[in-house]
Amino acid sequence: QVQLVESGGGLVQPGGSLRLSCAASGSIFRFHVMGWYRQAPGKQRELVARISRGSVTYYADSVKGRFTISRDNAKNTVLLEMNSLKPDDTAVYYCNSFPAGWDWGQGTQVAVSS
Fold first, then answer.
1. For 29-42, b where at least 16 C-beta lie within 10 A, e where not — what string?
2. pLDDT over 90 at 102, yes or no
């Protein structure tokens, strides 16, 4: 079973930036499409971005042009660079395969507020 550990969240002002990191255990990571998801209070978890084994990317319309997903298969990590953050980006952010097939990690909290 793959274990996922997210980090890098925090409190940031509107317009600010954060870089999230996801570390995955196990060698099967490199064979999977990986995604970043988020869940805001009172809302369902949603896909934010995903990246294929060959680094082809997809972004939700709400983050397109502001977020960048990348992966390092040698290090079993997936990154999410978030710029021009908005209050609507406030959520707990998680990584998982796409579609999500592993146990969820604890996530990392992102709060965007002035």
1. beebebbbbbeeee
2. yes
Please check whether residue 103 is in contact with residue 15, taking contact to mean a CB–CB distance below 8 angstroms.
no
Two structure tokens written together for 62 = 């709400």
Q: Determine phi and psi for 67, rounding to 5 degrees.
A: -110, 150
Residue among 111, 110, 105 at smallest CA distance from 6: 105
Alpha-carbon gap, residue 84 to 17, rounded angstroms: 6
Residue keyed to tokens 């990986």:
34
User: Which is nearest to 105 in space by CA: 29, 24, 47?
Assistant: 24
Mean pLDDT score across all residues of the chain:
95
Alpha carbon distance 33, 50 (integer Å): 7
Please state whether beta strands 46-51 and 57-59 pair in parallel, antiparallel, or not at all (unpaired).
antiparallel
* 1, 102 Cβ separation under 8 angstroms: yes
Does residue 71 sit in helix, strand or coil? strand
